[in-house]
Amino acid sequence: MSERLEDLVRKRAGGEPVCLFAYDLDRLTDHVRAITATLPPRCRMFYAMKANSADPLLRALAPLVAGFEVASGGELDKARAVSGNVPVLFGGPAKTPSEIERALEQGVLRLHVESALELHRVSAAATRLGVTAEVLLRVNLAGPFPSATLAMAGRPTQFGIAEEDLPGVVEAARALPGLRLSGFHLHSLSNNLSADAHLELVAHYGRTVSAWEREFGLRCEVVNVGGGIGVDYARPDRRFDWPRFARGLPGVLAEFPAHVREVDFECGRYLVAECGNYAVEVLDVKRNHGVQYALVRGGTHQFRLPSSWQHSHPFTVLPVDEWDSAVPRPQAEGPVTVVGELCTPKDVLARDVPVSRVRAGDVLIFSHAGAYGWEISHHDFLSHPHPEMVFH
Ligand SMILES: *Cc1c(COP(=O)(O)O)cnc(C)c1O
């Protein structure tokens, strides 16, 4: 825990129970700079905004990344609020015709097209507006995938164009007016922790695109290899080995046709997870049926990530010594289950985690809370107040 974070939590202790997300923008900036500085030629790092679209984060990121990947009209508005000309990639599995039209009016750099019908909608909107829409076709690869990535990639999902439908969609992309087919989009997995597996995956994309070029007689200019670089929530000290990945990348890019001018990454989690902490005060400590519970101000309605991924989220205890000596102060040692303020047994942030001591009035700091935390949560269930958002 950084001193700055501890300071800002301690300043609040003793007032209304602490409940806040704190985002360390210097840490974010350093992390993202270190990543983009080691990208080889042709590679560009976009930020997938769905991981966290808070305005101060976007403003910190805008000068550091190649642009934003957005997946809705709302995200497009947030990108444009930050900058009128930041490059925007427009994705998302179910775009409405009016979103497509607005994206074109707003001058997005490219659209990632997910079906034959969507391709027709983009063509119609571009024709109406008298512009040319640059598109990538998002393909849901049939596999087989390299063995290291098999567990996550290649399952049925609603995303992208089935590989067997690709010939027809490529033909349509060439025939329809208002379109310029620049290449393919191949985001296939999530939260990958292995640099070697990720290199194998990107190499696989390169071979796949080369094969399609031969099959369809195409010249591909852009390949989007997606996001999916992960965070190990069970062992957050074991970070994805970015330096190893960056060292391997030039060799892997040799699998891509030489005329591919741009290989786009669009990472969310890996860029922003680390800069966020979720700090919540322990309201009560009790034992029920042999299990020790710490009940906090906050919970899964503000931080749904651990329940969504079915993990115990890592946290540390910040001891707060102030306490009214006239009232009993419950405490627990050993395994403790951290739960929130909702009236449902599913409101669990961490289960049976050994602690040396946790007392009512202490503050728990959940680390790696910057991605898919507040963003994915059902904030208004039970109408508790929202947490404070601190950008420091
Ligand atoms: C969610 C998503 C991303 C970002 O994924 P991360 O795992 O956060 O890196 C990138 N591209 C697409 C199409 C996505 O849906």
UniProtKB/TrEMBL annotation:
<keyword id="KW-0663">Pyridoxal phosphate</keyword>
<dbReference type="Pfam" id="PF02784">
    <property type="entry name" value="Orn_Arg_deC_N"/>
</dbReference>
<dbReference type="InterPro" id="IPR009006">
    <property type="entry name" value="Ala_racemase/Decarboxylase_C"/>
</dbReference>
<protein>
    <submittedName>
        <fullName>Diaminopimelate decarboxylase</fullName>
    </submittedName>
</protein>
<dbReference type="GO" id="GO:0008836">
    <property type="term" value="F:diaminopimelate decarboxylase activity"/>
</dbReference>
<dbReference type="InterPro" id="IPR000183">
    <property type="entry name" value="Orn/DAP/Arg_de-COase"/>
</dbReference>
<feature type="active site" description="Proton donor">
    <location>
        <position position="343"/>
    </location>
</feature>
<feature type="domain" description="Orn/DAP/Arg decarboxylase 2 N-terminal">
    <location>
        <begin position="26"/>
        <end position="273"/>
    </location>
</feature>
<dbReference type="GO" id="GO:0009089">
    <property type="term" value="P:lysine biosynthetic process via diaminopimelate"/>
</dbReference>
<dbReference type="InterPro" id="IPR002433">
    <property type="entry name" value="Orn_de-COase"/>
</dbReference>
<dbReference type="InterPro" id="IPR029066">
    <property type="entry name" value="PLP-binding_barrel"/>
</dbReference>
<dbReference type="GO" id="GO:0006596">
    <property type="term" value="P:polyamine biosynthetic process"/>
</dbReference>
<feature type="modified residue" description="N6-(pyridoxal phosphate)lysine">
    <location>
        <position position="50"/>
    </location>
</feature>
<dbReference type="InterPro" id="IPR022657">
    <property type="entry name" value="De-COase2_CS"/>
</dbReference>
<dbReference type="InterPro" id="IPR022644">
    <property type="entry name" value="De-COase2_N"/>
</dbReference>
